[in-house]
Design goal:
The structure holds two protein chains of two kinds. Chain A is mostly helical. Helices cover about 55% and strands about 5% of the residues of chain A. By secondary structure, chain B is mostly helical. In chain B, helix 7 packs across helix 8. Classes of the chains: A mainly alpha, B mainly alpha. At the A-B interface, helix 1, helix 3, helix 4 and helix 5 of A face helix 1, helix 2, helix 5, helix 6 and helix 8 of B.
């Protein structure tokens, strides 16, 4: 079994793994045929290299002109291009990067603030945090009187229909709807004659800690008691809760803060 | 705050500039060492692409400009020789593709120049004739090889290792060894005839 031409070339080029190279070497020591073949291949290499060099070396121009040209191009390149980033970091200039960071941050804030869609969204979110957007949710009532409101059957446990909830999220630009972050709540509770109407619904954030839905519940209960006790006009109660329920809370509970920390209402 | 930091920044900028220019000059030195060493091998290789001398010169300039950027960006420095061949190879391919005038030579694989153009220093006319005939045969054999086999031969003739050739041509190392084995077997058969 003789060594293949390819292995002879690989062996001569020192590209065989050590063990295979040793095998080829010991075979060559024993086998004249393969040794001659190897010489033929070496001869072919010599022939090729001679012809190749002879063909092209005569056509190689002097390197002086191209060298000067490259030098000129490099100095132009070096003059027009700033130091690369990694040099900038190595230079210690990065220590002043807070200047750059500050500038970038200012720019980012400026862009965000001047971006109308972002601003509008922030306004919406600020509003939905505690009180609704009066343009979108002015409040709406059904035509019922005090007697009906105060009937025992009129409870607060009303769920907002799913289609209406979707519409409210859409109206407030919350895409997609985030039922886990917001509760679609009645501005004027049905217990006080509020209507199942999109103008009476808004996405109330669960994230609000102080003036949250539980606090509003307390106000609603208190106002209903006042209305049913004849101490407060129903229409006034409706108007005050619709105008700004937080102001109403402060007014009727005589406080600037919710009276007691109440856990988030989840059972409505 | 502002009063104290501004001169510091100016100083740091000046230092960075000085360092950068010093760095550039050391990169340039390194680059010209490679230029002096590698220009001829690259030139021969580009001529083997059927590029005319002017185009080869242009490709070499572009290759070393690319090397300058490569070094300045602190990219890996090992095997820059292989890197140079790879860039030159790709630029040559692009040049050949782009240049409509080169289309004819692209389709006819004349990689070595006609024998007449070569000045033969052999003194004896008979030897001269024999040598010329031998070379003519070899040229014909090389020209008849597939493009990839020719590229492997030329790169190997410039001293690239198999792994380097594989990187330049974007083929496997085993393809390189198969190719070289096949080509040299053909050449040796032709020479032995």
């Amino acid at each position: 079994m003789h060594v293949s031409d390819q292995d002879l070339v690989l062996a001569a080029d020192g590209e065989l793994p050590a063990r295979a190279a040793a095998r080829v070497e010991s075979h060559l020591a024993a086998c004249w045929t393969c040794r001659v073949r190897q010489q033929e291949i070496e001869g072919a290499v010599g022939e090729f290299v001679r012809t190749y060099r002879r063909a092209f070396d005569a056509r190689l121009p002097s390197s002086e002109g191209p060298r000067a040209l490259l030098k000129a191009q490099l100095s132009q390149l070096g003059a027009t291009q700033p130091a690369p980033w990694h040099r900038w970091f190595q230079s210690g200039l990065w220590r002043f990067s807070w200047v750059l960071l500050g500038a970038v941050a200012c720019l980012a804030v400026a862009i965000l603030l001047t971006s109308p869609s972002w601003f509008a969204r922030q306004q919406v979110q600020a509003a939905t945090m505690m009180i609704p957007d009066p343009a979108l949710t002015p409040g709406a009532t059904v035509f019922i009187g005090r007697e009906e409101v105060c009937r025992a059957s009129n409870t607060k446990n009303r769920t907002v229909p799913a289609t209406l909830r979707r519409q409210v999220f859409e109206e407030y630009g919350i895409h997609p709807a985030q039922p886990l972050a917001y509760e679609v709540d009645y501005l004027i509770t049905p217990a006080l004659g509020g209507a199942d109407d999109i103008h009476n619904l808004w996405p109330e954030s669960y994230g609000s800690t102080m003036w949250n839905a539980a606090v509003k519940d307390a106000l609603e209960d208190h106002l209903r008691e006042l209305v049913c006790a004849g101490q407060l006009d129903l229409a006034t109660a409706q108007q005050e809760i619709a105008a700004n329920w937080i102001d109403a809370y402060k007014k009727y509970f005589h406080t600037d803060r919710p009276i007691q920390p109440v856990s988030r209402r989840m059972d409505r | 705050m502002k009063e104290s930091s501004t001169p510091d920044i100016t100083l740091a900028l000046a230092l960075a500039d000085a360092e950068a220019s010093h760095y550039s000059s050391s990169v340039e030195e390194e680059l010209f060492v490679l230029f002096d060493e590698m220009r001829e091998p690259l030139f021969r290789y580009l001529l083997s692409f059927s590029l005319v001398a002017a185009d080869s010169e242009e490709v070499i300039q572009d290759t070393f400009l690319a090397l300058f950027q490569h070094l300045r960006r602190g990219k890996p420095r090992q095997n820059l020789r292989g890197w140079l061949f790879r860039v030159a190879h790709n630029l040559a391919l692009r040049k050949r593709r782009d240049d409509w005038k080169q289309m004819e030579t692209f389709f006819s694989p004349v990689t070595l120049p006609p024998e007449e153009a070569v000045i033969d220093p052999a003194p004896n006319p008979e030897d001269q004739l024999a040598a010329r005939q031998e070379r003519t045969v070899l040229l014909a054999v090389v020209d008849a090889l597939p493009e990839q086999d020719r590229r492997c031969l030329f790169l190997r003739a410039e001293g690239l290792r198999y792994r380097e050739i594989a990187e330049v041509l974007e083929i496997s190392v085993s393809s390189v060894s198969v190719s070289l084995g096949r080509s040299l077997a053909r050449i040796s058969r032709a020479a032995g005839r």
